Amino acid sequence: MIKSESQSRSSAGGILILLLAAGSSVDAEVPGYQVETIAQINVSTFLRGASPGGHLVGSMVINGQQQAFVATSTDGVVMLPLPPGYNSADAFDANSAGTVVGTVSDAGFPQDVGEPAVWSRNAQGTYEITIPQQFASLPSPLGGNLAIQGGQIVGIDEAGTLIGWSRFFGFSGGPTTLFSMSAAPIELRPLGFDATVRDLSDHNGIIVGDQLRMDLDTGVVEDLGVPNPPEGPNFAFGIAYAVNDTGRSVIAGNTTSSIPTENWLTLYHDPADGYHRLNPSELPQRFVGFYDLNNLGDIASSTGIWFEAEQQLVHGLDTLLTDEFSNWNVGVGYINDRREVYTGAFDTTTGTSWLVRLVPASDRIFVTGFEPDKPAR
User: How many other C-beta atoms are found inside a 10 Å radius of the C-beta of residue 2?
Assistant: First the structure.
């Protein structure tokens, strides 16, 4: 069973597979998709991320505890090991080498009380887990030092950079931290990134969180400011949830509405010309949704997928499936630079749930010529 509610790709909650998508009419220029199955699933499954190379990661509820997994078309689902004495885990991101990052806990609820974790393949092809070095304590925003009790690694890039945050004792979060497999961690608040990191780009070392964007190579931190696109409404603040190699970011914009069910709208921020609404006709949401984007500028959110080259927003990927896959219900998922979408799906003919890759059925879906702003790290 795949959960069918909406969660953010936050460092605490990860993202959730959206199984059922609303239908929508689609312009013919946006090509169709074919469904390729990766693995059948029969337990509650949370999909948290996908690597550029096609590694899906997340957690499955087994015997009442969340357990981290990685899935590929070659190996299917592989459950990731726990350290001795630990009972739960969640995986948030992976790179094309198959290195997976997340959190592990010895008291259940890995997102709430877990420690940062890295899973790497050994020479035998199996996974081993490492818990990186952590701070003993850090200066607290309330004054004085507070003990650090765990945290999470929420992102890994193609070069193996590990980014996450360290949890203050008694709190549900803490400062952004650059972790290492073999060295001491580095706190990024003294460097100007006073925010909780949400995402790391694949190649160029760009991170985002709250209204900040930072280039890890240059140390430059940019305040994106409060969203104020020309297509209203007014916004109180924004939270950056995803970033690509060009620095384009997907933002959850908090509106100034006093109505509790009308708090959030999806925007993107482009380094060249600032904020834009993803869809001016989008209805405000009560909760923050799901966000991802590729280096072509395509954006996936709980609203749907924005295809940058075609300048079209598709509200439901079901509407893009070719005729032979009309029996599938698919959710919005992670979109890579080949415009493949990794997500969860339900086969209505067999009544089974799957992790799948949606493959473009036409060459028109591909956009060539993307060049990062700087060389890969």
Answer: 23
- pLDDT tens digit sequence for 257-284: 889 889 999 999 999 999 999 988 888 9
Q: What is the 3-state secondary structure (H, E, C) of the chain?
A: CECCCCCCCECCCECCCCCCCCCCCCCCCCCCEEEEEEEEECCCEEEEEECCCCCEEEEEEECCEEEEEEEECCCEEEECCCCCCCCEEEEEEECCCCCEEEEEECCCCHHHHCEEEEEEECCCCCEEEECCCCCCEEECCCCCEEEEEEEEEEEECCCCCEEEEEEECCCCCCCEEEECCCCCCEECHHHCCCCCCCEECCCCCEEEECCEEEECCCCCEEECCCCCCCCCCCEEEEEEEEECCCCCEEEEEEECCCCCCCCEEEEEEECCCEEEECCCCCCCECCCCCEEECCCCCEEECCEEEECCCCEEECCHHHHECHHHCCEEECCCEECCCCCEEEEEEECCCCEEEEEEEEECCHHHCCCCCCCCCCCC
0.85 surpassed by pTM: yes
pLDDT tens profile 361-377: 875 544 434 444 444 44
- Distance of alpha carbon 250 from alpha carbon 60, whole angstroms: 27
| Contact (CB, 8 A) for 152 and 111 | yes
Q: Is the pLDDT of residue 11 over 50?
A: no
